[in-house]
């Protein structure tokens, strides 16, 4: 029974947490690709930037003596998301829009976004240094233990930020779904992702759609980055390290498909945690009846933890070979 | 003052211009049909009117207002709608969502217009929850025309509405075009099926080499031996 709880803690909880972060990031990547047709490489750093915005706001709130039942970083999140959305709009205005107006090719925009990556990371290092920081320097990080109704069995352990992360992801996904299927602007966004020329001909204000895309992508990136920083620590390369699985999630889900990106995020998140999980733990209860001639396996994980990132690539390669447009049939360009 | 007036327009995609001084004028009671050989600049004329490529010379006037090189999202609220020949529906969206996108520029209640589009194209009402990409070619054309009507245009530009359709669908589309025109919407269309289209056209324009060659009523062009010989296949 303890082994099963261990599985829940290590795979179900971790997989959901990782999947949520990937999903929130991949939605932004896929929306930007759908509307602007380029791979926004700087998305990971937009997440990190969002986390730092939250960190600054949380520090301000702490210095004002604001302390609540919830982690301060979570309380200030809506404000941080608004600021991050504004920063995303500013980055577009300053770097991508001038290129678009000159009719730049998608690959030029991709290279520009690599430049933005370096710039954001540089600015963060310039202002905050390279060390890791914690949102929980001055407040406790609560662990929630869910007791299971069995004698002498360990509880399911989940931290407060992890629960908040899962809940906010669900809310964000539902809100995004309602926006895309019910609102005028959301439908216009889908129309532009479907057929940009026809959207223009229909009179859809494409500049407004582009702005909405950056607001949503920037806001969700801030949410994902903050949640990641709340779960682990805040450092300048926080989300740069996961930009590749995020792209894998977006591509696996079908580029341009918001729901595909969410599914892809959870798929990659769970695949990574399951690949590094030591499955021999689940065999331990059978140790007594284990046949003598078969050595009991000590480590049954598929890949060592440090090679976790390769999992995303294996899935990506397999999906591209079997179904090149992704699970949800996205754009092939 | 005409509903739309194209005077001496030259335009192209950069490089050599495709249009070299095209003239035409349409009233709201007109069905104008542009015919001519391949590469004559028929579709290009519609695109130039709709600001989809740069007009280098001449002017486009809508109700006397200069709309030369204006952006589409400004033109649609002014009463201009365009149905491209290809890729003219949002394939991943439902029929009803496609129609709603046609009304994107409207902030008022458009349920009446939606009802009248469904009345005009009954198959669309039946399939309104279906993805437009799953429809047949003829039904897609209905979605495309319905989408263009949702903004309540004064002038409808149609680029080869019968392309790739069976004769039965072609006649149905033509009938709807005449009906739309009777409801007070001016029509300017490019058509490969020139003879059939000129039958009901009140104005016909024969283009060749990016210039007007003949202009007259549909009947006049059909009866002109030279037009018939050179452009309508004898």
Average pLDDT number of chain A: 90
CATH class of chain A, named Mainly Alpha
Work out the count of structural domains of chain B: 2
What kind of sheet is the major sheet of chain A?
2 strands, antiparallel
Individual helix count of chain B: 10
| Number of helical elements of chain A | 12
* Major beta sheet summary of chain B: 6 strands, mixed
Arithmetic mean pLDDT of chain B: 93
Q: Domain count of chain A, please report it.
A: 1
**What is the gyration radius of chain A calculated from CA atoms?**
21 Å
Annotation keywords:
heterodimer; A: about 325 residues; mainly alpha; ABC transporter involved in vitamin B12 uptake, BtuC; two-stranded antiparallel ribbon; about 0% strand; globular; B: about 230 residues; alpha/beta; Rossmann fold; six-stranded mixed β-sheet; four-stranded antiparallel β-sheet; 10 helices; about 35% helix; about 25% strand
Task: Report what the structure shows.
With 333 residues, chain A is mostly helical. Chain A has one domain: Orthogonal Bundle (ABC transporter involved in vitamin B12 uptake, BtuC), CATH 1.10.3470. In chain A, 65% of the residues lie in helices and 2% in strands. The longest helix of chain A is centred in the first third of the chain and has 35 residues, at 2-36. Chain A is globular, with a radius of gyration of 21 Å. Chain B has 234 residues and is α/β, with parallel strands linked by helices. Chain B has 2 domains: 1-79 and 153-234, Rossmann fold (3-Layer(aba) Sandwich), CATH 3.40.50; 87-152, no CATH class. Chain B has helices at residues 42-49, 72-75, 95-102, 111-120, 122-126, 137-149, 167-182, 194-200, 218-223, 225-231; strands at 4-11, 19-26, 31-35, 55-62, 65-66, 80-83, 155-159, 186-190, 203-208, 211-216. In chain B, β7 (155-159), α7 (167-182) and β8 form a beta-alpha-beta unit. In chain B, α3 packs parallel to α6 (137-149). Chain B is globular and about 50 Å long. Chain B starts with a strand and ends with a helix. Chain A binds chain B through residues 184, 187-188, 190-191, 194-195, 197-206, and chain B through 50, 52, 72-73, 75-77, 82, 84, 87-93, 97, 100-102, 104-105, 147, 151.
């Amino acid at each position: 029974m303890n082994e099963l709880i261990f599985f829940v803690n290590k795979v179900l909880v971790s997989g959901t947490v990782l999947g949520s972060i990937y999903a929130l990031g991949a939605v932004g990547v896929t929306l930007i690709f759908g509307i602007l047709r380029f791979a926004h490489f700087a998305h990971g750093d937009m997440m990190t930037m969002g986390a730092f915005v939250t960190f600054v706001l949380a520090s301000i709130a702490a210095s004002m003596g604001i302390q609540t039942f919830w982690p301060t970083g979570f309380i200030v999140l809506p404000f941080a998301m608004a600021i991050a959305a504004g920063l995303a709009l500013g980055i577009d205005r300053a770097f991508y829009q001038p290129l678009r107006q000159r009719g730049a090719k998608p690959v030029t925009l991709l290279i520009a976004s690599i430049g933005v990556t370096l710039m954001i990371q540089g600015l963060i290092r310039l202002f905050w240094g390279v060390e890791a920081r914690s949102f929980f320097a001055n407040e406790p990080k609560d662990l929630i233990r869910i007791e299971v109704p069995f004698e002498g069995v360990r509880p399911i352990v989940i931290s407060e930020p992890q629960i908040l992360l899962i809940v906010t992801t669900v809310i964000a996904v539902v809100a995004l779904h309602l926006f895309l299927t019910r609102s005028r602007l959301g439908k216009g966004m889908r129309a532009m992702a479907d057929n940009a020329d026809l959207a223009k001909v229909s009179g859809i204000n494409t500049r407004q759609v582009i702005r909405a895309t950056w607001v949503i992508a920037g806001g969700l990136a801030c949410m994902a980055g903050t949640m990641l920083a709340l779960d682990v620590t805040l450092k300048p390369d926080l989300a740069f390290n996961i930009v590749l699985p995020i792209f894998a999630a977006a591509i696996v889900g079908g580029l341009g498909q918001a729901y595909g990106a969410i599914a892809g995020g959870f798929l990659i998140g769970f695949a990574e945690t399951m690949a590094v999980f030591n499955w021999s733990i689940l065999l331990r209860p059978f140790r007594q009846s284990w046949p003598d001639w078969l050595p009991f396996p000590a480590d049954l994980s598929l890949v060592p933890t440090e090679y976790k990132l390769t999992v995303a690539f294996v899935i990506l390669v397999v999906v591209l070979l079997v179904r090149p447009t992704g699970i949800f049939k996205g754009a092939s360009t | 003052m005409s509903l739309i007036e194209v005077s001496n327009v030259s335009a192209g995609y950069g490089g050599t211009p495709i249009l070299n001084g095209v003239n035409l004028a349409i009233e709201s009671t007109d069905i104008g049909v542009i015919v001519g050989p391949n590469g004559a600049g028929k579709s290009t004329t519609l695109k130039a009117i709709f600001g989809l490529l740069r007009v280098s010379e001449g002017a486009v006037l809508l109700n006397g207002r200069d709309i030369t090189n204006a952006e589409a999202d400004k033109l649609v609220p002014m009463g201009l709608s365009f149905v491209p020949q290809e890729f003219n529906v949002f394939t991943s969206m439902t029929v009803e969502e496609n129609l709603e996108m046609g009304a994107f520029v409207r902030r008022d209640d458009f349920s009446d217009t939606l009802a009248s589009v469904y009345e005009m194209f009954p198959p669309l009402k039946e399939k309104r929850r279906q993805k437009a990409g799953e429809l047949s070619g003829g039904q897609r054309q209905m979605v495309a025309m319905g989408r263009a009507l949702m903004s309540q245009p004064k002038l409808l530009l149609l680029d080869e509405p019968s392309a790739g359709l069976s004769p039965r669908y072609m006649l149905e589309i033509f009938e709807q075009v005449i009906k739309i025109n009777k409801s007070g919407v001016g029509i300017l269309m490019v058509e490969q099926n020139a003879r059939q289209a000129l039958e009901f056209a009140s104005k016909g324009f024969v283009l060749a080499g990016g210039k007007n060659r003949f202009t007259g009523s549909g009947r006049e062009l059909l009866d002109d031996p030279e037009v018939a010989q050179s452009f309508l296949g004898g």
